[in-house]
Amino acid sequence: xxxxxxxxxxxxxxxxxxxxxxxxxxxxxxxxxxxxxxxxxxxxxxxxxxxxxxxxxxxxxxxxxxxxxxxxxxxxxxxxxxxxxxxxxxxxxxxxxxxxxxxxxxxxxxxxxxxxxxxxxxxxxxx
Length: 127
Fold this sequence. Notes:
This protein is α/β, with parallel strands linked by helices. It has helices at residues 28-45, 65-80, 93-105, 116-126; strands at residues 8-14, 17-23, 25-26, 50-55, 62-63, 83-89, 110-113.
């Protein structure tokens, strides 16, 4: 059964850091839309290497179980397209664990920071 996509996503760039901010309850259809938007943004940017920063700052940002499988697919696509690592900013313990598992599944280096400034400084130090 096909459902209407749920959730929202904002994407912006700070130098070679792709800042992805999902919000709301997210279903699989919403995650598919998110992944397509991320891929389009990355392809349009045409960077050889970049960093993926997911900001889960909004309360209630949580995905259905299938969303985390799609997250692993998106991380794999990112890795195959120049992403050097993924960072999760300010998230619940559950989301942090799910991101860590998805990252490990595709061998994507994963980090967690409590605020965006720390994440950006970390990325800057990697360049």
